[in-house]
User: Fold these one by one.
Assistant:
Number 1:
Amino acid sequence: MEGVIHGFVEAQGVTGAILVLVAGGVLLTVCVEKLISYLTRAALELKISLFALAIVFTGFEFDDTVLALVLSAGDLEGAALGTALGTGLAIIGVTLALAAIIKPFPVDIPPDYVALFALAPLLLLPFVLVGTLTFVHGLALVGAFVLTFGYLIAREYQRDTPVFRNTELGEEIQADGGITVPEALSEISEDQIVGGRSDPGWIWLSLAVFALIGIVFASMLLEAGSEVVVDGFGLEETVFGATVLTVLLTFEDVMLTIEPVRRGVPEIGVGNVIGSVLFSVTGNVGVIMLLSDLEISRSVLTFHLPTVIVVTALAAYFLSEGELKRWHGFLLGGLYVVYWLIAIVVFGGVPISG
């Protein structure tokens, strides 16, 4: 599907690609807004964890998995690994940083969740030290991904508080189980259709699936349009071109983090960040080795992976403090910019996420 979309957009020229970018941005914004509304209603109606739903719906980077498989099949395993590491860095250095800068927000995450988040990149270290990764290593990383996500979801179902206690939504949940309507649940047109039906929670969950499909399709439009625009203006070999491309390719995660924070349900945004990083450094890397062996370059061991480890650990420390502040965002974003500059000047390139 991505190939078909890219071919269509390319045939429209630069002007058509710009229009596709606009359409993709509008569609993505609408679908993200709908996903937030649907997930929040589903969590409250089904009395399950909104954080767990956020991890499942936004943490799995399906498009990155497909891209990793395609690159691996085309003997571009190094590029696939770079994409996985680049995604992990961009989720923290762009999406989480922007969310904190735009609107600082409270965080209520159990210590074991924060520890898993901080230690996840370290799982790659023994594999990278091996030098050449094989099918067996891929199975081990995919297994680590399944165990990690399974643990998080199981723990969420055991918690007494299904949402962050100190968020706007959490404060609206009364001690007797009653719920007033917070700002995050401001009325939408679908309420008139779904509200009176039996088992509305499952209907909201089904609508969330359709919203997620719309987000993936909108991301494909953004990716195809951005590539054509960057190529058309001759920016593909410049720092600016790479920066523009990366911003566009991570726009989906930016929206899935910033919008929930803005609407008072940061558990969706934090679930997206934690889930995406965990998936990128375990399942996504593991998928690469399922098709072919991967020889680790020296720059991964000496620079790219250490950067992921340090930035993730720093973000985990900020999350553990109970509130993500504006200066946290500036620091994380600044480290990401420094990483780019060093990578381009010293190593001649940066892993591009998307």
Number 2:
Amino acid sequence: MAIWDSLDSEFAALDAAGLRRRRRTIDERHGAEVVIDGRRVINFCANDYLGLADHPALVEAAIAGAKGWGMGAGASHLVSGHFAAHEHAERRLAEFVGCDAALLFSTGYMVNSGIVAALVGRGDAVFADRLNHASLVDGSLLSRADLRRYPHGDIATLERMLAESSAPRKLILTDSVFSMDGDIAPLPALFALAERFDAWLVVDDAHGFGVLGPQGRGALQHYGIRSPRVLYVGTLGKAAGVYGAFVAGATQVVEWLMQKARTYIFTTGAPPLLAETICAAIDLIEAGDGRRAHVAELVARLRSGLDHPERLMASTTPIQPVLVGANDAAVALAAQLFEDGLWVPAIRPPTVPAGTARLRVSLSAAHTVEQVDALAVSINRRLVP
């Protein structure tokens, strides 16, 4: 069994490079604190930016949804799996982010894997930020369009690429908040280029929905961008505290995606109870200015409390990466913090470029000032200059 036996050597190579990943199992969750193997630690891993994932209102909405609709949808949305709860959630999401229409998907990965191929294909071109999420990369590859990746945030290079392209259809593809760096894409400049070169602009706001913009309405509202050429992708398992994702935009474009996005057409609809919970989450996000202000205070406090500001990346968002460098050093530092009761993930290649392994600190409205201060003290004590 040579194929089977080769896995052993490949696992050994992962171990030697400090790249093997392992899961921890959460036994209990109480806000920002979790219990793992009988030990209570503070969770700085989760993307639960507003602290809504175990909010009583969402639990109650899920219970009510289960009682009203049962569990599974039973079929794809286009067969018999589209319920009134889904319809209401889509209308509520579209209105909330300032778009005409929205389409619910089971996951953000499925949105990004499906909508690019619905908009462009062979002979067309996708222009993507080099630090885009893996789902955007995979969606581009599945489209069979020519994939051109520009250096992170480099508007001048992107402009040159667009000017040189003779593709009949062009699509600019970007995260809003970059998940491993925490910085925000130059969306006004990207939109200006999309207008100038008659291109689609797809913005994955997975880490901005609920956090950016007035009342947490997202990155497009943050910059006042609205156009039929812009598609907005939002994730519901992060700041919203639920599960799933959606794409929003002009009615005609969303209708086209419903007809052509394979990851929407050929999958069972999400449980309708989740749609009920999504609506409850939007209400909490809309009323969550206090939560967002608290997160901003925690960001400022962490950044001012660390003794190694040169290790911090230029982020004003709840994602606060602390650069370490070597894979083994990042893993060791994360293990030491865990011993201090602080759970922070070590992020390594291929998620980030080689030599830039880091701690990825995710701050949440569920964290207290005292917990963030404890994290800063522990990093200062453990991080080797």
Number 3:
Amino acid sequence: MLDLACLHGHAECVETLLLQGDDILVHDSTTRRTPLHSAAMNGHTECLRLLMETAEDSNIVDCTDVYERTPLMMAVANGHVDTVLYLIANGAIVNAKDSQGRTALHRGAANGHEECVDALLHNGADVTVRDHRGRMPAYLAATCGQVCILSNLLAMGPSSSKSEDHLGYTPLHIACYNGQDNCVETILEQEKITELSGNPFSPLHCAV
């Protein structure tokens, strides 16, 4: 019941259940999602506050589900900047990785949540961290056509040509492949593209 109350943002019900001694770290049977994940994914910051104030261990803020996703990752993925800021203020690990090696910044970059990305960057998010396929957040921004975020990430981190994944593809390759014209233009405006190593296909091949 606590998980459902948090999922739907019923703060009074959450408070009542906590007073009755409900387990904050109860997991659902499918993804092992906790009430903190449920509150974070829907931006119910008041429910999160009640959970955090009741918890005996502040490290609960970084509890994980079966995919090693934290509440912060869920909040960023759904664009809830107030919740993101609350979690960071309460000690959430900004650069935590899930089972695929992705951080909250990877999610914000892919989904286009600029305010969340800004909050992460202002609180120590690493723009160079790679997932298990070698992809930095800028790569996902280019994949999904998130132009403003891509521009900011490239300005803060390595150039597109130095952001190759494990197959040798760069953000420019993937932007060309997916037809993300604005991202291609952004990369070319910010960088002087020289010979790309690591992959037999050029961005031109990918565009064709």
Number 4:
Amino acid sequence: MQDLALYFPGILLAYTAFLLAIASPGPNILAVIGTSMSVGRASGIALALGVASGSFTWALLTVFGLSAILAAYASALLVIKIFGGTYLLWLAYKSFKSAASSHDIEAKELSGERHRPLGYFKRGYIIQMTNPKAALAWIAIISIGLQDGAPLSVGIAIVVGTFVMSIAIHVLYALAFSTPVMVRIYSRSRRVIQGVLGTFFALAGLRLLTSRS
């Protein structure tokens, strides 16, 4: 508990980065929304749980992978932070670009034949696990919370916390955005949301690149 309290600011920042990263609908979120609208909430929720489970798997692989690297090469933390900070700046650029664009979100059902809820869960998991951007995002998120000498329990705390948030938010998307009305409401505030996300990612990226620990 003392270790977690000591590294709590980094853990909280990692939570915030993850929360804001999924606040803006990407391809996976749009697939969840589209499935809920076209097929039904049960299928949308199943797809959402599959995506969340895939995200949890990536988080575990990232934590244990980075922990093993840091245990063998202490100097690797600097390289990881440079990579993570650079990726966050890239996300900031993408968010600002989206905020400046007039292009609206497009929620579409997944291509192919329709399945039972279990089938959508499997598709959600496979989609997330075969997404290379998910690995890059998790390296950035975990590197925010990992400081020099941080124990494995810090990484586990990040994984567990983000997994709970992932389930809650993905399911919320499936429930709330199962009607066209909610999609229109989000569209009206999309640019403001993207601007806020861009600002946070830029600040987090700069903080990570200038951090000494």
